[in-house]
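retry 2 of 3: previous attempt timed out while embedding adenosine-5'-diphosphate. Reduced batch size to 1 and resubmitted. Inputs unchanged:
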Amino acid sequence: MGNGAKGRGRHVTDSGCVARRGTVTNGRSDPTKQESGNTVFLNYSFAVMLQSANIATNAVTENQLKILAIANQKGGSGKTTTAVSLAAALAERGRRVLLVDLDQQGNASTWLGHTDGGEDLLNVFLGMKALASTVRESGVENLSIIPTSRIFAKADLALVTDPDALFVLRREISRFDETAFDYMIFDCPPTLGIVTTNALVAADSVVVPTEPTSLSTTGVANLFETIARLRETHNPELDILGILLCRYDGRTRLTRDIEDKLLTAYADLILPRSIRQNVRIAEAHAFRQPITTYDPTSAASADYRAVAEIVEARAGRED
Ligand SMILES: Nc1ncnc2c1ncn2[C@@H]1O[C@H](COP(=O)(O)OP(=O)(O)O)[C@@H](O)[C@H]1O
Ligand SMILES: [Mg+2]
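retry 2 succeeded.
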């Protein structure tokens, strides 16, 4: 596979998802509108991207790897929680899932019991190690992990002079046995640097977790600008699976206000299921287990299972 083409047979199929979900210009919102003083600010390139983009229509056949990037450059927006919990919920459905921890903080790694791994991943990014050789067990059935740790911070600097710096992950995945997994899920760092861009260049779809606070929603607008640019230059097939509202507490006025603003600005890009604020999440992390095994009957488990179902449906893998 050359750098410019994915060559993985994951071509856009326009499987009718748009007709099912409508478009963002369905009368509920005008994406070209800029709302000054508002938390949400949409610029022209984003509006163009939304109008030209089909939302998460990349259907895949059985045995075809589906790659999801969990991204939002704002820290604390629920990326790691979503990456680990969604991966576990998909694994629970019998899917073979590989979680790739791309954040040097290694929160997803420690969550699943790994404290090292950064050196291996760094060597993958330096072209000195194959991605497949860094896969480890997670202790959860059907779920494997490529862990990371602090030393992976060196990747950014090491790649600065590499002309193919943005294609490292895509290249490595092309060398990977893609029939080994059904899903690859990237937990991205809280920046829009080289590592997150690698994930967006290699992914089929992006899930954007966001807390319902004004700061996080500004982060969503910035990320969408980046996605719009990457669609034009590096990954035309990249689609937005959806914005996932995390730590949702419908009892507070602030949450409801921000949800309304997000719905006005992003309409059908907001996933129809939110993740409720749930204290069991932090406990699950402390006990080194995904929420779905730590407390299978918790509200958060139910929410992430529902999101897994949505992901499966959008990947063309409905039961
Ligand atoms: N649904 C939730 N309910 C309660 N706490 C949550 C929930 N989702 C995330 N958190 C907590 O919020 C914090 C930030 O979440 P995290 O997933 O680490 O965000 P990010 O990876 O974007 O920095 C963590 O302490 C996590 O335990
Ligand atoms: Mg994180």
